[in-house]
Amino acid sequence: MYLNYLANIARYIPELILVALMAGLLILETTYREDEKNKKYIFIGGLIGLVVALASLVANFSGKSETIFSQSMIIDPFSTLMKIIMVLGTIGVFYLSRISKDIYESLKTEFIVMAVGILIGGMILASANNMLMIYIGVETLSILSYVMASFKKNDERSSEAGLKYALYGGLSAGIMLFGMSHIFGVLGTIQFSGMAVNLLKLNQAQMLILMPSFILFFVGIGYKIAAVPFHMWSPDVYEGSPTPVTAFFAIVPKIAGISALARIGFIFFTAATPMRASWILLLMAVASLTMTVGNVTAIGQKSVKRMLAYSSISHAGIMLCGLVVINDIGVRAITFYGITYLFMTLVAFYIVSIVQDKYGNDHFDRFTGLAYRYPFMAVVMTIVMFSLTGLPPLAGFVAKFNIINALLNSHFYTLAIILALNSVVSAYYYLKIVRLMTLKQQESNEVIEGFGFLNQFIIIVMTAPILVLGVFWENIMMLANGAKIFFQ
Amino acid sequence: MSIYYYLSAFLFCLGLIGTILKKDLISMLLCIELMLGGVALLFILFSKSTGFIDSQLMVIFMMIISACEVAIGLSLIIALYRNKQTIYTDEIKIITE
């Protein structure tokens, strides 16, 4: 029994590497003198650690699915894939934090340490198999995020954003726990496997207690992915925090929350019960609200970063659509969406960050005439914006197509129509940037330093998957076809 | 249902309402703690009534994590106070819609 417990560690190596990395980076930072500016070994060490963790995740990918640590964690292809997305996102954000001027030079190392911590929280959430692990995952994500959001210590906006995040976070964690306690009271266990068994044996009165409890439980995770009734914090936090932090928040917590929700849906609501109907209704309402509110508010924004923040809310809504259909097609669509969303968001934030570093703000006007100064970058930005809108033949189109396909397969016609209409609305503000870049004459001929050869190269490397996945997606989906994604 | 259920639900609601209505940040943090206290009591109550001890585990972790949360919350309040010299929510709204 105890030996089994220890043997499980072999399946938990990626997380252990990251924990060791976080501790190691903290120790490494103390070896620097206080006035040392360029702490490049921490950056290099962090990058190496992440790549090693990524390699070990990929090596684990095809291993058999199993539960570890007395069924508290689950290791299966789905969780591994979500972790790979999160690690890739963190690697991208690391480099962005290195070149960005938005973070104080002296805090860049702290950013790297904390990003690794948040990544660990996200990984716990992605493979959580009981309520305690969900709670620990959410809080590990949150507590470090509060600090990260208020990174610009001397900036009022940044510290206000962090505090707002902390208060909303504390409130939603409390509500989530209230729901969890009632779920435990009815089902008598915190293990998902045991809960799923007990769920089928309930009487009418117990179900009536359980339905609102699951809604309360949803609040905690819905808050992390900024689903709409709980999204109030996110535009402020996204605008107030430095750009690399915003990019990080747009990727890692969202992917982690979505994967936790996918697992909850799969474990509890595969059998046709009244509970399943109420869960689907909840997700449908939240998804359509999230898409619509995110898109409609994004239209009126002046700052590109804030626009991207709202658009990331609406993208979370689209991923929630894939969760409404609780079947394999939906999950495959979500994972594909997650991968494309990762690359699109990273490239968009890279370009916005570099332009913002040059001009001090990121209003739409700053992109005027970029096509004449940096044609390459304008082309890349256009590709990303087209892909975010969902125009063929780019990856964003395929991702949206897969989600609509999953919806239509399970006869959710209303939701599919809302999704399609939202794509049309989103075209307005995405294509606005393209219009400004190409159709307007340039105002000045200034050189943007960030667009050096290396940075341009890295941006183009990250754009390549958007093109490749858009054309050759069929083969990739065929590979995933029939694969057992979930451990059941 | 025992009286403890009503007590913990009362504590939770008190915390929830307090967090929404209160205007100064320290009280808001305290109200969040009150909320978590109510939930912890609820977990212990359910542990007694169902006979399973899983939820007592939850309570221990909740206490640790809420302590971390308060520490972070207070340090963020200090950071904000250094910039704005106030902890009242009415006076610190900077980010506009």
Short key terms for the protein model shown above:
heterodimer; A: mainly alpha; B: 97 residues; mainly alpha; Helix Hairpins; 3 helices
Helix/strand order of chain A, N-terminal first: HHHEEHHHHHHHHHHHHHHHHH
Arithmetic mean pLDDT of chain B: 86
Oligomeric composition of the shown chains: heterodimer
Number-wise, the strands of chain A total 2
Question: Using only CA atoms, what is the Rg of chain A?
Answer: 22 Å
Structural class of chain B: mainly alpha
Runs of chain B with pLDDT <50, length 5+? none
CATH class of chain B: Mainly Alpha
Mean pLDDT of chain A: 85
Number of E-state strands of chain B: 0
> Strand-residue fraction of chain B?
under 5%
Short characterization:
The complex is a heterodimer of chains A (488) and B (97). Chain A has 20 helices and 2 strands.
Task: Tell me about this structure.
The complex is a heterodimer of chains A (488) and B (97). Chain A has 488 residues and is an all-alpha fold. Chain A contains 20 helices and 2 strands. In chain A, strand 1 (66-68) and strand 2 (73-75) form a beta hairpin. Chain B is mostly helical and 97 residues long. Classes of the chains: A mainly alpha (488), B mainly alpha (97). The A-B interface holds A 131-132, 135-136, 139, 142-143, 146-147, 150, 153-157, 159-163, 166-167, 169-171, 173-175, 177-178, 180-182, 184-185, 188-191, 235-236, 239-240 and B 12, 15-16, 19, 25, 28-29, 32, 35-36, 38-39, 42-43, 46, 49-52, 54-55, 57-58, 61-62, 65, 68-69, 72-73, 76-77, 79-80, 83-84, 92-95, 97.
How do the helices and strands line up, and which of them pair or pack?
The complex is a heterodimer of chains A (488) and B (97).
Chain A: H1 2-7, H2 13-30, H3 40-60, E1 66-68, E2 73-75, H4 77-99, H5 108-126, H6 131-149, H7 156-187, H8 192-199, H9 204-224, H10 233-240, H11 243-268, H12 274-299, H13 304-324, H14 328-359, H15 370-373, H16 375-389, H17 395-409, H18 413-439, H19 453-471, H20 473-480
Antiparallel strand pairs in A: 1-2
Chain B: H1 3-21, H2 25-50, H3 54-84
Helix pairs in contact in B: 1-2, 2-3
